[in-house]
## 1
Amino acid sequence: MRTWLLTLPALALVASACNYPIHNDWMNTGSESDSDADSEGESESESEPEPLDGIADLHLHMFAENAFGGGWLHGTARGAPEVALAPCDGGDPGDHAWLRDELGPLLPECPGITVEELSLQVPLIAGIVLGGGALVSEELGAIPGSRGDTGEHKDRTLGWPSLESWPRWDTIAHQQSWEGHLEDAYHGGLRLEVISAVSFDWLCEALRTENVARPECDEMNDVYAQLDQINEFAAATEWAEIALTAADARRIIEEDKLALVVSVEASHIMSAGDWRAELDKLYAKGVRTLQPVHQLDNRFGGAAPHNPIFQIAQYTENCHIDQDCGLTTDTLTLGFDVDADCKNTRGLTDEGRALVQEMMDRGMLVDAAHLSEQSVRDLHDVSVTNSYYPFYLSHAHFREIMLPAKQREEKTTPAWVVEMVRETGGMIGLRTAPDEVHSYDGSQVPNTCHGSTRSFAQAYDYGRLGLKVSMGMGSDLNGFIQQTRPRFGPDACSGSFELEAQCQARDQRDDGPPPLGSGFDELGLGHIGLLDDMLDDLDALGSDSGPLRGSADDFVRMWERGEGTREGPAESTADLDTSGVTKLPLHYDRELQLPEQCGERYCPDALVSGVECRFDAECVSGVCAGAGDCGAPTGVCE
């Protein structure tokens, strides 16, 4: 069922009392006899605007080729595909996504402990110091089921027009938001896109200097370069337009065009000097939403720790070693001041509260993604003071549905934060993630292909049916993060351990639903143009993508609420329900359920022709040609 920010009788008086802005273009002009009736004391009805059709994606880094000093991403957002998506197999394989040979100088000599001493306590530090840029570059993109596309990425070198290697679900170093792909998404129903200018100076400093276009590694320089690109793209594109107000966004979508909302995501946003003057500059560039905090604590507030690499980056700024709880290792956390539950103790600063207030005064939207939990509480306080001004999370994971290791990350979103979002009339951009997740009993989609659309369905249905929160997509494409995995092909269901992935891929082939016939089948969410295909797959699996296909309306109504007059909470949250999440057994226990041959577990009838095998029983054909006794040597399935 669609969750509306407000569902009320369409009377002007009631709409006003319930915090909806009243726009003249919502009014029925009426006939002359209607006017006569009004003059006799009968009030004229005012109708709510018609719901807008279209998907909203709340987080896209379209022009990230200019992030990180311009030294990380291969490919461009604009231009002919043979240029923008050109192969990267010529010349030096380290001309992008490659860190400098010596990373040790990035680590400071802090009082009371040397880098060498810290390396003994933190293996990741030792890897950075001893492994060098080549090793770290190779490992950056590696996650379960993927060799990634960083460093040499020898098996990820094909480009346009084959698209066999990239863009694909595990791309973090190649363009995923080319303008042609964005236009495909538009034709597939995308009607509101939040394009975020992004950077992170620590990564820029870690890159090979010869690859970096702006070696000063100033995040705001990167941001302004991307903002100029966004404005140039919008000016040259007939089917897309930058929305500067909620009314703009509504008009653009009603004209059947793509509304672009401009955002910023940087750890040192407005890092020095007068932030109000800097906000004026961003506003003049079309920015209407931003994240006060990104990966690191800054002048505005505390960040939500997650990946240990960002804990090391935070340590380079403050030399802090916290032993209250262990995130970086089992016993300690670098950089962040955490409590006994490993949560960042830092909330919004005085400047952070002032920034949020200024944004609300301007009718801008606050993106709470990456805020520490204490910062979210502080943001909610400011929201309540402003009659429940809406805020949102542009790319979020629902904590209760994630596995324990991910649940431990503060960046995941617990139900109590969702409750605050609903109270204010905000929404969630649900991350199109590659993660294995727990099962949600309320979903009609069996959780039988880990990391794929089946996993996304567990989180989406939990948010839709349990948390009852308005949601859009939170793709984070070009955002240094992998995407939803495919259900078919060599990477199918690879969020789990290898043998279970083989069994689940077999079941997808045998039991369906069948492939869509698009690149999404084997590439997963490889680029923004496959967004509609992902929703088609969600429907085929038995979920209901309808709310996502109407999420542009939710975003515009949220923005209208921010610009309008509010007199209290947007809705009651008494119906929020976190029950129905069934935890998955451990990988070890699941592997024990598989059959065994020669002391080795295997998945029967799972491997297709041409794939390496150990036993006949592993192959769909029943023949593992060339295999020796007990799989030594291995063979190939006929």
Note: The radius of gyration is 25 Å.
## 2
Amino acid sequence: MKMSKPGSPPGQVLFNYCTSGGPGPGSAEELQQFEKIQQGFANQFESFFPDNLAHKTIVVIPSLTLDQEVLAKVKGALHYEERLLCMLMLLRMPRAHVIYVSSMPIDPVIIDYYLHLLPGITGYHARERLTLLSCYDASATSLTQKILQRPRLLERIKQHIPSGHVAHIACFNSTCYERSLAVKLGIPIYGCDPSFMYCGTKSGSRRFFMKAGVPMPPGAEDLKSYDDIVHSVAALKDMYPLLKKAVIKLNDGFSGDGNAILKYPDLTDKRELFNWIHHNLYKEIIPVAKELSFEVFLEKFRLMEGIVEAFIEGDVKVSPSVQCRINPLGEVDVISTHDQVLSGESGQVFVGAHFPADESYRAELGALGKLIAEELKKEGVLGRFSIDFVSVKENDAWKHYAIEINLRKGGTTHPFLMLQFLTDGHYDEASGLFETPNNQHRYYFASDNLQNDAYKGLAPQDLIDIAMFHGLHYDGATQKGVMFHMIGALSQFGKMGIVCIGESPEEAYLYYNKTIEVLDAETAAK
């Protein structure tokens, strides 16, 4: 039986956006049309994707179609739409067109920054094949919903797809809204059918880990209520008396902001412990997201459902991830590994990643990731996704626990795409290393959260000027240096993203530290 739960993203109300005609959202007719559109994608992929001279259009919809109340806790969340500007590198194919839609207009300086890096293509030639469209709407609604509310914008997107071009949608994540958008535009999504959204929830992830035979933390899934949390937290402690902490996770949380931590009291009597949990749990659970109260977290839990699992302890503990891809032909590839950098009191919030993961375990991670990907393939999953792990070193050997599947692009997607597009290199699954066409290896450190209040007020042109003056800018000749993203968030939030590429992990991180030193010096009070 397929484990699918079609429907709208949890916590969101499906409004009537069918103002431009066509089948109603979620209707049988829409589902049939979407299935028909997606069926033709395999032919497009096989015939046009390998041909760099093919006439094709990529419609980039960088919408974070997630719970907007939780997303609002992320500083500069609107500017996360800029992460997929790495897709502008596709304009290096001289007949490819890119249509990029955003909530608000993107500063031309930022666009020029990306186009300047295109190998073998002039900025003029690239701009002729780039269409930038905006909703002119900064409200706390997902970009895809904003587009669906604007029938004239939908028509403009259609009109900018040249006659004779094959086209598809590239998006951050795929929900019922992206499905409706695909039907209205009449083009497929290179991403997972929203009917399989459950596969990428915390509960669905645990079920696929079980099917693949991959270890995961002890816990319980498909929990619906506060009482379910109470009983699961108590059962965990009963089964594992030495357990110090438990993690409660929303099914559709992201970047750790949908998690909460519970520290167990130092009680040995089971009845006393259960009574403590029953009467004090609501006071002791601490949501990871700042300014998110437990009352709001619990309401989100009732809407999304979720899991409880053991917090994995270890003297030597890391948080690696594996990125996989299932293409429209059903081929499964491991395309990268990363060592994630997490912050917060309990290390739950994603802030950056080293590529590739440590050589002592990246092959093991790739193998585990492929086992899980093969199970997802059987389900019908398509596109890029990542699998997060917690790994603990015990007696000189690593033990890996699968944590979650992210059926979407994430914090490790755009840095890898940028490296791939800039160098025209490839990831070697056997060695776990990235190789350039001249057989050199490249490494990077990337972060979406380089933040300092002192950076507030820096305009995009200021940042680029500083990078150029101090020799931080990525150099196409050496294929090393620094790439910035989310630049639009810098002036208001003092925050941006960064990808630092080097010939070694040490050099990549050195670029990161040098960038911070330069920015701190440039913004220091005179």
Note: The radius of gyration is 23 Å.
